[in-house]
Amino acid sequence: MYLKINSVIKKLTFSATIALLLTAGAGYLVQYVPVLTEAAYEKFHPEVSETATEPEQEMPPDLLQPDFYLSQGFGILEQAEDAVQIPVSEEETETVCDPGEKPYPENWNLSGGFVQQMSYGLYAGTRYFQLSKAGQVQNLTALSNQELYEESQLLPEFRIQKNGSPQVLIMHTHTTESFEPYERTAYDSDFNYRTTDNSKNVVMIGNQIAAQLENAGIGVIHDSTVHDYPSYTGAYERSAETVRNLLIQYPSIKIVLDIHRDAIGGDGVIKQPVAEIDGRKAAQIMIISGCDDGTMDMPNYLKNFRFACLLQQQLESDYPTLTRPVLFDYRKYNQDLTTGSLLIEVGSHGNTLEQVQYSGELIGRSLARALERLEE
User: Fold this and answer.
1) Of 2, 44, 102, 282, which has the fewest CB atoms closer than 10 Å, so is most exposed?
2) Alpha-carbon distance 365 to 363, whole Å?
3) Which domains are delineated in the chain?
């Protein structure tokens, strides 16, 4: 349903409205929000045109709330705080010795609002560029799109071996991130979409990815250590310690995948981004590759970016519409630990358990195919 331009919107000045649009971002989701021409803008805002005689028009809600749809991969509220891994004190990272389990709900109070299924499409705008084979990148850094495109043409520097030794580590900084139980039109606002039940959180996605790698003869370790419960603060510091220890124990590991889920929604609506793949619904995914602004001690970030582009192109070639653009931004996410470190958002909290499990299977298949190009 579209929102009608009401008297409040009409009272916005031309400059204030333009500022709102620019603040929201230079690129828009083509499927929902076309880039506005001057004529189109005047059509929606007749008060700024001396000759305009158009009646009130209906406007897609995305134009008024672009960030509602253009999630930046932070997740629910507090996840934004940890994006750049601000150091935390020992006091803040203290946890309860035995907090007990955080169960998945057995009963639901479906009065929280609506679940809306949707699909992200191609994007237009200066922040986005197309990769040579398939898929897009959203560039939120000062590096030029041309420079990043040239990097995307290069293969990662690491190589893998199918010799039985672990090549891939799958882990979860926010291990308890969870999902909707099944497709429905309403959600339970009392559930914060976190559980220690590994059959209902992101660990199940990691299991699916790991199974596909094993089927392809690629050595993999899936670590299900809980890093975000009972204390959410300091999760990235705790997961970094887990990864460092495993890299010491298994020096053959080249790739570290931190599997998460996004959280997209607001104003009583949560989003369920899906793609139809071979007649089944899969949760759309987003790869996040961090960029160093000079303060993150991450000099090899472009090597991670090459791997992100390799995987993105494989995924989108194998399963068109499964991916959202690679998010390349000033974030760390422990991607200083290897040159094959990526964070992958598998769906959102509005996606169902079945949808994200299927996406895990698809990610594993494409990852195995991509790694064939890097086999020694």
Assistant:
1) 2
2) 6
3) 3-69 (no CATH), 77-372 (3.40.630.40)
pLDDT digits (tens, 9 = 90+) for 156-171: 999 999 999 999 999 9
**How many CB atoms sit inside 10 A of residue 2's CB?**
11
Structure tokens at 262: 């996004």
- pTM above 0.90? no
Q: What is the pLDDT of residues 110-124, one digit of tens each?
A: 998 999 999 999 998
Q: Where are the beta strands (DSSP E) in the chain?
A: 3-4, 27-29, 58-59, 113-118, 123-125, 128-130, 136-139, 166-171, 186-187, 219-222, 255-262, 265-266, 269-277, 280-283, 285-290, 326-329, 341-348
Omega into 230 within 30° of 0, i.e. cis? yes
Q: Which two tokens stand for residue 236?
A: 């990235």
- Pick from 132, 126, 163: nearest CA to 149: 132
Structure tokens at 7: 């008297």
